[in-house]
């Protein structure tokens, strides 16, 4: 079943993408929740025209995202956490990285940050999706808190 996404759907696609999914997923979840609609030939023509008109606006958005990526790379991320030796008491997640970026002056929603769950001190890398074409890799360090 071919569908046109009305909004970003995690692990499937971005807004205005044409995706192929199984019939049940499309009919029972995506269409009733308003996340997609059927990709008929007329809907595809309308989508093509809309994308053509939106192309020049998209270039500005991509340029802004690239500028934000350069600003994010300039921020040194150091997260302090309680630890016993190298093992942390708890874990470091996307929330902690988003908070440290906010302290550095850049507000990024945590759903756009992918790092996994970290349970040891050391240096790690997180990826931040600013746009479908702009993904930046950020290095961060987890340091044991001094008692």
Attribute tags:
single chain, 147 residues, alpha+beta, 4-stranded mixed beta sheet, 3-stranded antiparallel beta sheet, 10 strands
Polypeptide structure, described:
By secondary structure, the protein is α+β, with helices and mostly antiparallel strands. It contains three helices and ten strands. It has a four-stranded mixed beta sheet. A three-stranded antiparallel beta sheet has the order 2-1-3, with no helix packed on it. A three-stranded antiparallel beta sheet has the order 5-6-8. A hairpin with a 2-residue loop joins strand 5 and strand 6. The model has no long low-confidence stretch (mean pLDDT 90).
- Gyration radius, to the nearest Å? 20 Å
Give the overall average pLDDT: 90
Total of helices: 3
Q: Structural class, from secondary structure content?
A: alpha+beta
List how many beta strands DSSP finds.
Answer: 10
Order of helix and strand elements from N to C terminus: EEHEHEEEHEEEE
Order of strands across the widest beta sheet?
4-10-9-7
Spans of 5+ residues with little confidence (pLDDT < 50)? none
Shape: elongated
Gap between N and C termini, in Å? 58 Å
Strand content: 25-35%
Helical proportion, percent range:
25-40%
Give the biggest sheet.
Answer: 4 strands, mixed
């Amino acid at each position: 079943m071919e569908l046109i996404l009305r909004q970003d759907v995690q692990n499937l696609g971005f807004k205005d993408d044409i995706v192929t999914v199984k019939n049940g997923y499309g009919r029972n979840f995506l269409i009733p929740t308003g996340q997609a609609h059927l990709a008929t030939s007329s809907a595809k023509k309308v989508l093509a025209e809309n994308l053509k008109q939106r192309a020049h606006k998209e270039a500005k958005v991509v340029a802004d995202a690239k500028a934000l990526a350069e600003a994010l790379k300039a921020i040194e991320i150091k997260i302090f956490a309680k630890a016993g030796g190298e093992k942390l008491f708890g874990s470091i997640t996307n929330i902690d990285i988003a908070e440290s970026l906010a302290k550095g002056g850049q507000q990024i929603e945590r759903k756009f940050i992918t790092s996994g769950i970290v349970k040891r001190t050391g240096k790690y890398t997180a990826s931040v999706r600013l746009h479908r074409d702009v993904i930046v890799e950020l290095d961060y360090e987890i340091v044991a808190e001094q008692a």
